[in-house]
Write a structure and sequence with these properties.
Blueprint lengths: L11 H22 L6 H14 L3 E5 L2 H11 L7 E4 L6 H8 L3 E4 L11 H4 L7 E5 L14 H6 L5 E3 L7 E4 L2 E4 L6 E5 L13 E5 L2 H10 L4 E3 L2 E2 L10 H11 L2 H22 L5 E2 L7 E2 L5 E5 L2 H10 L29 H9 E4 L7 H16 L1
Parallel strand pairs: 2-3, 2-4, 5-8
Antiparallel strand pairs: 1-9, 6-7, 6-13, 8-9, 10-11, 12-14, 14-15
Length: 379
Amino acid sequence: MSEAVRIPSFDLRRNYARIEDEIIEAVRRVLSSQCFIMGPEVSEFEREAAAYLEAPRAVACASGTDALLLALMALDAGPGDEVITTPFSFFATAGCIVRLGARPVFVDVEPDTYNMSMERVLDAVTPRTKAVIPVHLFGQLCRLEEIAPELARRDIPIIEDCAQSFGAHRMYGDRIMRASSWGRFGCFSFFPTKNLGAYGDAGMVCCREQGDSDRISRLRAHGAAETYIHDEPGLNSRLDALQAAVLRVRLRHVETWIEERREAARRYDLMFAERGVLDVLTPPVEDAGNRHTYHQYVVRAKDRDALQNFLSGRGIVTRVYYPMALHVQPCMISAGYARGDMPVAERLTEEVLALPMFPEILPEEQERVVSAILDFYRG
């Protein structure tokens, strides 16, 4: 299949072509300054990102994984502690918990939104619960209003995993609650394919309190508040100025790109409804009150693996997020879970398929995707 007719799952090149001049100007600015690690570009990105998110404080770091790790370190999570989270997410969500010696406590997910079931979270709380990490998966927020007041009453902090939800928000009464609004910490990833992506790894932690922000800032720099004076062991997780400069450019356009993603999602929804394949394929659900940013457009499909192979043969690239639930990952055995413990998450690993989704996807490309799916099921 030639490159000209291939439909990628995500196309960074098309996106770069729209902002090439701005990116080159930003990179040249950094090269001229010869300030590559931290510095004013990073500080300005932190300020601009915090303003966009309506967050009191933002601390940039080297990756989304480090953002989660730093937040847990700031809570002194470690052996003997439990952290409640979802079994249906990227590995880093639970991997950071285990890395610090704490135990992940998994709560099954909803079959329509794919997000952690809020009604089960409070049942999982024990005297050892150190924190709750909800994941706003694929671009839409969990219904945190259902658990946040009670968790606050019990003094259990929320660490929002916002790696896939930059720009997402949820209405709570007449308030707009943006990703990171509920938690003591909000952790973001700027991996290149994210709605706001760098040109390499990058991450950020949003904080409500100055003390938390100060500690995260120390922890990302080997635990040092001043050069060569280390208050505690930390990480080398500083964001470099080139990535910050790229992110500053891309932040100016992210709202446009999100709306283009939402329009593409509406086209998929309409096409699937019109073609009559809803008996074998279930489109993603936008929960009431949410602004879904469609980092991924993930369907549930009958005969998923065969469908994916069929689409590949038609030059259509799809992805499976995720093929194995976290509670049955080989390195999670010590958490004490087995197959069957999280039935919804386990079923999703056999059914979910992420279709091509990016701001520049063309309606005719989506038509090809939907027609190929119809050919598979009806052919």
